[in-house]
Design a protein that fits this description.
With about 110 residues, the chain is mainly β. The chain contains one helix and eight strands; from the N terminus they run E-H-E-E-E-E-E-E-E.
Amino acid sequence: MKIITNNHPRDLVPLINVPTADREDFDYITEDEAYSPRLFHYKNSWYDANEFCAIIPPGKDTANPFVHRATEDSPLRRWDGVQADSFFSAVVIRFADRQCETVVVGQAL
């Protein structure tokens, strides 16, 4: 597996800052959540950072079955979340700051 990224931090934005034509993809976001920054734009698509599967680094233990457990030799070990976009590729994110206001995005191939 190879991960391609430009390591450029992208701001997370609230739903109200997403173009109107793209908002229908996020109809599950309630009006109360519409002002919380959680969306980002990558390769002509909008993504919700809250919808990514968490990546657990090697050595961390969890009983949660809905996480990806990275191995020591996995390129995913340095990323925080993953979302498949095809059978052979995925989008990965890493939070770029402690406040979780920006993400670095990459494509895993």
